[in-house]
Amino acid sequence: MPRPIHAVIHQPALANNLDVIRARAPDSRVWAVVKANAYGHGIRRAFAGLRATDGFGLLDLNEAVLLRELGWQGPILLLEGFFQPQDVALLEEYRLTAAIHGEEQLRMLELARPKGPLAIQLKMNTGMNRLGFRPDQYRAAWERARALPCVGSIVHMTHFSDADGERGIAHQLEVFDAATVNLPGEASLSNSAATLWHPAAHRAWVRPGIALYGASPSGRHADIADLGLMPAMSLHSELIAVQELKAGDTVGYGSLFTATEPMRIGIVACGYADGYPRHARGWGDDAAPVVVDGVRTRLVGRVSMDMLCVDLTPCPKARVGSPVTLWGHELPIDEVAAASDTVGYELMCALAPRVPVSVATLTTADAPAH
After folding, report:
1. Per the omega criterion (within 30 degrees of 0), is the bond before 356 cis?
2. Could you tell me the pTM of the whole model?
3. Which of 96, 136, 200, 251 is most exposed, with the fewest beta carbons within 10 Å of its own?
4. End-to-end CA distance of the chain
5. What is d(CA 29, CA 214) in angstroms, rounded to the nearest whole number?
6. Catalytic residue among 35, 138, 213, 345
């Protein structure tokens, strides 16, 4: 009999979140970002929920091919572009749009001499300092790309470092606008945070990622609590044992939690080998939240490879077999991540292959119009 742990991918939540994005940026087209296997949700599982998008953005060529095999005929954007000269032929074969962020990629296009026309997005480094041409280099790079016979459309692109924080985007937006003044072409600037909170950056395209999956770009659930986003992944298990503790008893490796009075704890079939973070706090007032039998409680002790322990004081009726939600509709993933000193992105992407996954599918009423 299999362990009781399982995850659910909610296609209706994905479709809902795409609608929320469209409402926030009504005059923009949407690149639905499905990199990292759709943020751990699985491209095959997420596709139906997101197919009403205008385009998909990802990194991996194999994932781009998978989207074509699933029947997607619209635009696909390679967010890091290509890496080898032989990749250029695949851009033509699968009709892919490539981000161009450096001299090496321009040179590969020149040497490969594809028939084209290829759609590209020319990336400017406006302060993130990862990828892109510096502002004083950008116009020359654009002229060079425009001169290539194989290049068709060129979209201007950048990425914001602080759209989810106090610094905001004004400093980068000013640099971008100054460097692209009088250059023809559309622009694609906004990640999830800019899409949700900075309408000045919406432009022709927005590129939401984490918001499509129902988590907060800032890592703070309160920042998205009123936006109508829904969690697209939930993780569930059950209690597989119950222990009665005396005052002074400790729990788990390292004895990080000590009972101050008699209490019951439940043992849950979930551990760091399933993708639950080992560094989640299991002590103190900011211990990681867990839902048992529909009641919110807390983690106690250190997370083990295959198990974790929870305080059953708030749920005295809980017993072996009682349902447990690790994150999902009853418990925002951002709250679990915050108690683990990380962000919801990491928890989604860390879901282990050994965890069985089912899909809550779209109904006729949920299904996208196109």
Report:
1. no
2. 0.94
3. 136
4. 41
5. 19
6. 35
Is there a binding annotation on residue 305?
A: yes
Report residue 94 as tokens.
Answer: 């699968």
Candidates 115, 213, 253, 317; catalytic one: 253
- Known active-site residue 317: no
Class of the CATH-defined domain 11-217: alpha beta
Report the pLDDT value the prediction gives residue 204, as an integer from 0 to 100: 98
CA-closest candidate to residue 257, choices 290, 230, 296, 288: 288
CA distances from 170 to 139, 204, 322 (A): 21, 18, 50
**Orientation of helix 135-147 relative to helix 170-180, angle to 10°:** 40
Sign of CA dihedral 83, 88, 94, 95: positive
Residue 253 bears catalytic tag: yes
Give the domain ranges of the chain: 11-217, 233-360
Which of 297, 352, 347 is CA-nearest to residue 325? 297
Q: How many CB atoms lie within 10 A of CB 289?
A: 21
3-state secondary structure of 324: strand
Q: How many angstroms separate the CA atoms of 266 and 260, rounded?
A: 17
Q: What is the pLDDT of residue 365?
A: 55
Number of residues that this document lists for the chain: 370
Q: Which CATH superfamily is domain 233-360 in?
A: Lyase, Ornithine Decarboxylase; Chain A, domain 1 (2.40.37.10)
pLDDT tier, 114 (very low <50, low <70, confident <90, very high otherwise): confident
pLDDT at position 116 over 60:
yes
Count Cα atoms within 13 angstroms, Cβ side, for 44.
6
Listed residue (142, 143, 125) closest to 133, CA to CA = 125
